[in-house]
């Protein structure tokens, strides 16, 4: 179990969604991570997606640029995060880590995970409505959360409507939060959910 990598055999990701390819090890005191490399093998081709070494993080395949990352401040967690999955992302992903021992010898281990990308039937977002007429005391902390189902990715916008005036955009998050409610916060709020 010494410096062994752990990862699932297979992962199913949602088309246009995001996924995490777990890869982890238990850090050992006398062994310092030198390099981390993520390699992908598609139907006909293979290539290095991501490399972390003493010079920093590098995304080497252009089709993954701005879509992949690996946690920075989590020792032992070298999982690959992929955003906006494409059907062409399916393949076998290999996580490869090299450590340097205190005597300067190198140890390299790798583990592979197969990734499938599933297309879901395209559906419009459906918002699950909360109950109308929420009463909260002034000074309290509260939030409104927009929950929608449908084809990912779903974006959210919160508005406040005022009679006779244009609705005011308040947030582009699923949750609209107040740290301390004021009397002037009373009013009608609504959420919009949107996908492709």
Question: How are the SSEs ordered, and which strands pair?
Answer:
Blueprint lengths: L9 E5 L4 E3 L9 E11 L4 E8 L2 E4 L8 E2 L10 E3 L8 E11 L4 E13 L7 E2 L14 E4 L2 E2 L5 E7 L6 E4 L3 E4 L9 E7 L2
Parallel strand pairs: 1-9
Antiparallel strand pairs: 2-7, 3-4, 3-8, 4-5, 6-7, 8-9, 10-12, 11-15, 13-14, 13-16
Detailed description of the structure:
The structure is a single chain. The chain folds into two domains: 114 residues, Immunoglobulins (Immunoglobulin-like, Sandwich); 70 residues, Sandwich (Immunoglobulin-like), CATH 2.60.40.10. The protein is mostly beta strands and 196 residues long. It has no helices and 16 strands.
Distinctive features:
3-stranded antiparallel sheet, 6-stranded mixed sheet, VSIG4 protein, Immunoglobulin-like, 196 residues, mainly beta
Order of helices and strands: EEEEEEEEEEEEEEEE
CATH topology of the largest domain: Immunoglobulin-like
Biggest β-sheet strands, sense, barrel: 6 strands, mixed
* CATH homologous superfamily label of the largest domain: Immunoglobulins
Total of DSSP H or I helical runs spanning 4+ residues: 0
What would CATH call the architecture of the largest domain?
Sandwich
Q: Which residue ranges are poorly predicted, with pLDDT under 50 across at least 5 consecutive positions?
A: none
Oligomer: single chain
Counting DSSP E segments of at least 2 residues, the number of strands comes to 16
| Percentage of residues in DSSP E strands | over 45%
**Which structural class best describes the helix and strand composition?**
mainly beta
Domain tally: 2
Q: Which CATH class of the largest domain is shown?
A: Mainly Beta
What is the terminal-to-terminal distance?
Answer: 46 Å
Sheet with the most strands: spatial strand order? 1-9-8-3-4-5
What overall form do the CA principal axes indicate? elongated
Average predicted local confidence, pLDDT = 89
Organism: Stercorarius parasiticus
GO biological process, one term: negative regulation of macrophage activation
InterPro entries: Ig-like_dom, Ig-like_dom_sf, Ig-like_fold, Ig_sub, Ig_sub2, Ig_V-set, VSIG4
Protein name: VSIG4 protein
